[in-house]
Design a protein that fits this description.
Elements (H helix, E strand, L loop, with lengths): L3 E6 L2 E9 L5 E3 L4 H5 L19 E4 L4 E4 L2 E2 H7 L2 H10 L5 H13 L8 H6 L6 H15 L8 H27 L13 H10 L10 H14 L6 H10 L5 H13 L6 H14 L5 H8 L20 H16 L5 H13 L3 H5 L6 H12 L6 H22 L31
Antiparallel strand pairs: 1-2, 2-3, 4-5, 5-6
The structure holds acetyl coenzyme *A.
The site of acetyl coenzyme *A has 19 residues, from helix 17.
Length: 432
């Protein structure tokens, strides 16, 4: 008999099973709680609620550990590529040479975007945020790529995965080119996934883009580090929307919308805006730290703090080293990196940040890397979205195969008015 937790309500004892994960994490299984007790749990923001069992990503927020399918993210950043990591997340194991080749061929075959979709890009206002454009375009993909009835479910699903991974990257580059009024650059079959993206972004008929392998490597690492993060806000959105058994494009589109927020993926843009503000105000981070500490001021230090990590985000450590490496290679100095390092140095010694366990998260240094690569600020969160796609896809796939699958439908504790009668328009003073 497994371990149990005991719950006493009005003198009656209920026994609830304790579930233990492979890394020793424990959870009380309350799936029969309401049926047995008539009560529900209340957990705003789901900080104490596990919504599923998952075998994709393991995080230990106290120790700063992140592993995809058991493999430490540090090793993947050092030895793997984004495409290989995507395969690992989606399929559960690293690919053989043959499998990786087949996967790469599929990504290449599905990299073009339907020409009729270009009209959409061209008709968005020039100042539209690329995340809004991306979520709309991904949702619209269903109309252009409907289910293929002659294919098996598995084939259809694999093609949908390849389309998303490959076309979203192409669409991101197209939206950038169109926003600048420049000629669209098509993907090339002889370039890797990351090199292709950089080429589509920056190649021009008057200035051919010279691919720098160090920048390609920086992008590989950036995308590997963003590839999954278990049940974060956007992934939870993908699972929740997907739980209604809507098509994958719609579920991913919901994830993109959730990621857009400045408390989530939008933080990478917000960090650079904050660092720029500190720079323009003379470079002293102290007043910003004082504002973040002030309980009467809603300001937060962007790129600091995390729902799960109560120590340094392991991805931020890798990203910080990457900043130095990329800037050194480019022989460039970025004053925002100096400010970021100064800010971190002061903040991590500050009692408020120590007491609240606030450390740099992945977004704190990632924007400096993106700036060095040449990515414009309003595309930062789009870069995050491309990186997070394998995670969203693998989590959606896992939920599809989950024997305990259920429509996501949380409950609530109602605190509104008790039953009352409708007041006629006449009594409310409307002209009769
Ligand atoms: N600056 C100042 N104070 C902060 C910060 C911050 N960045 N983050 C949290 N706090 C404080 C809160 O004010 C609160 O203080 P209090 O208890 O004294 O009232 C306490 O820490 C807990 O904050 P919560 O918002 O309850 O913690 P939660 O786990 O919900 O927050 C979050 C996580 C949203 C990421 C938060 O740390 C934050 O807003 N950070 C800044 C935005 C950011 O960098 N987001 C990216 C996260 S990583 C990602 O999504 C990829």
């Amino acid at each position: 008999m497994g371990k149990i937790a005991k719950l006493v309500i009005d003198g009656k004892t209920y026994e609830l099973p304790i579930v233990t994960g492979t890394e020793g994490e424990r959870a009380i299984d309350i799936s029969n709680l309401r049926k047995e007790t008539g009560l529900i749990t209340l957990d705003p923001g789901y900080a104490n609620t596990g919504s599923c069992e998952s075998s994709i990503t393991f995080m230990d927020g106290e120790k700063g550990i992140l592993r995809y399918r058991g493999i430490p993210v540090e090793q993947l950043a050092e030895y793997s590529t984004f495409v290989e990591t995507a395969y690992l997340l989606i399929n559960g194991d690293l690919p053989s040479a043959k499998e990786l080749n087949r996967f790469s061929v599929m990504l290449n075959d599905h990299s073009l975007v339907h020409e009729d979709m270009r009209a959409f890009f061209e008709n968005f206002p020039r100042r539209a945020h690329p995340m809004g454009i991306l979520s709309s375009m991904v949702n619209a993909m269903r109309a252009f790529y409907p289910e293929l009835p002659e294919r098996s479910d598995e084939e259809e699903i694999n093609i949908t995965f390849a389309r998303l991974l490959s076309k979203v990257r192409t669409m991101a580059a197209i939206s950038y080119k169109i926003s600048r009024g420049h000629k669209v650059v098509y993907p090339r079959h002889n370039l890797s996934y990351c090199a292709n993206f950089l080429n589509m972004m920056f190649d021009s008929p008057v200035r051919p883009y010279i691919i720098d392998q160090d920048l390609v490597q920086a992008l590989e690492v950036f995308w590997i580090l963003h590839a999954d993060h278990e049940q974060n806000c956007s992934t939870a959105a993908v699972r929740l929307v997907g739980s209604a058994r809507v098509n994958l494009y719609a579920a991913i589109s919901a994830g993109i919308c959730a990621l857009w927020g400045p408390l989530h993926g939008g933080a990478n843009q917000a960090v650079i805006e904050m660092l720029q503000e500190i720079y323009e105000s003379g470079g002293d981070p102290a007043p910003f730290i004082a504002k973040a500490r002030d309980p009467n001021d809603p300001f937060r230090l962007m790129g600091f703090g995390h729902r799960v990590y109560k120590t340094y985000d392991p991805r931020a450590l890798i990203m910080k080293k990457m900043c130095d490496k990329v800037l050194k290679k480019l022989k460039r100095h970025d004053p925002l990196l100096d400010i970021a390092k100064k800010l971190e140095e002061v903040a991590i010694k500050d009692p408020y940040f120590i007491d609240h366990n606030l450390y740099p998260n992945v977004d704190f240094y990632s924007g400096i890397v993106l700036r060095a690569i040449g990515i414009p600020l309003n595309m930062f969160t789009v870069m995050f979205a491309i990186g997070r796609l394998p995670g969203w896809i693998s989590q959606w796939k896992e939920s599809l195969d989950d024997p305990h699958w259920k429509l996501h439908r949380p409950r609530q504790v109602y605190i509104g008015p008790k039953k009352r009668d409708y007041i006629s328009k006449k009594e409310r003073g409307f002209p009769v």
